[in-house]
Amino acid sequence: MSGNSATEARRPLDGIRVVDLTRVLSGPFCTMLLGDMGAEVIKIESDRGDPIREQGTVRDGFSWYFAAFNRNKQSVALDLYSAEGKAVLERLIASADVLVENFRPGILAKMGFGPERLAAINPRLVSCNINGYGSVGPYVDRPAFDFIAQAMSGLMSVNGPADQEPMRSGQPITDLIAGLYGAFGIVNALRARDLNGAGQHVESAMVNGSISMMAFLASEYFATGRLPERTGNDHPLVAPYGLYKALDGEVAVAPSNDVILRRFLTTIGLEELMAGPHYDTNEKRFALRHQLNALINERMRSVSQAEWIARLNSAGVPCGRVQNLAEVFADPQVVAQEMAIDVEQPGHGTIRMVGFPVKLDKTPCAVTRAAPELGQHTREILASSGYSDAEIAALAAQGVIVCAP
């Protein structure tokens, strides 16, 4: 299997069994992270499978979108509406360390697996619900989607130029934030179980997670009561900062304090500006940022993008160019970091996907399983949970389970 190979040392979540009731993105991203760290992830699907099995580009009969977020998992196809299917799920929960689901709050309880029932089945269980708005408050029953969470969390209100409508982030960022926080909460709950002996419930909401990412924008609002303005590629607190025009393209420059700003202006030959009466403080520069940006653009437009990037980085000024994904994955730094990996998908060829952003030198993340076919591991998982061949055959004949050939 391509990607970082596992070492002799046990990986951080080896021995942790995760029952995964999630679908689409936020939950599968959460459980993928756990699987990358060594957890055994059992993905429970209906007989139709996770909807993203049929979304995105399908090559050689397999969705690359599904493959990217469901590596390191095993698939059990199970009818959770039947009493027999619920009995199978109960047995799996009894043997699990973690249960993850991204139904709306209360749906799992309606299925017969509320907090009290889960505690009775497995008092050491760490359960996690990933949702839109949280489980308390007037919006609990609202359906959630990334675009709506971006709007409701304030994220869109600060994105885009001042004279245009609010803009969403191109990637489904609130789903990914919620999944990331879900994995973080689960790992913390497992550590707490080591210390205290009992499991607990973890909740991660798309809107809450995105609000937590508002950073200094929220701090400034709390401190001043003023709403942050949309500033496009300009910084809302610091000037100059943003995209500047070189001879053959734009350069992103981030001189976030006076020390770096002095390096920047010196490198482009405008060091005298910081000594003059108009630009000697950030407050003055911020008030006159449009004029200042014009001066910087005029000075930079006669030299190539590559030359400026080389000069500025040598001077200790953070800078770079805006890259599309083709350029990103060809970038020698990205290649060196193995941020694109090739995974052999049995029967479907090689699938390229994003690699591991977290690097552990002794127990690295690894892909040990390609994304599963629907029901690929039903028979294997049920057998390991004590079901006999005859019982498995009976459940399959009743349509309670689907076993892939």
From TrEMBL:
It comes from the Bacteria. InterPro entries: CoA-transferase_III_domain, CoA-Trfase_fam_III, CoA-Trfase_III_dom3_sf, CoA-Trfase_III_dom_1_sf. One of its GO terms (molecular function) is CoA-transferase activity. Keywords: Transferase. PANTHER family: SUCCINATE--HYDROXYMETHYLGLUTARATE COA-TRANSFERASE. This is Crotonobetainyl-CoA:carnitine CoA-transferase CaiB-like acyl-CoA transferase.
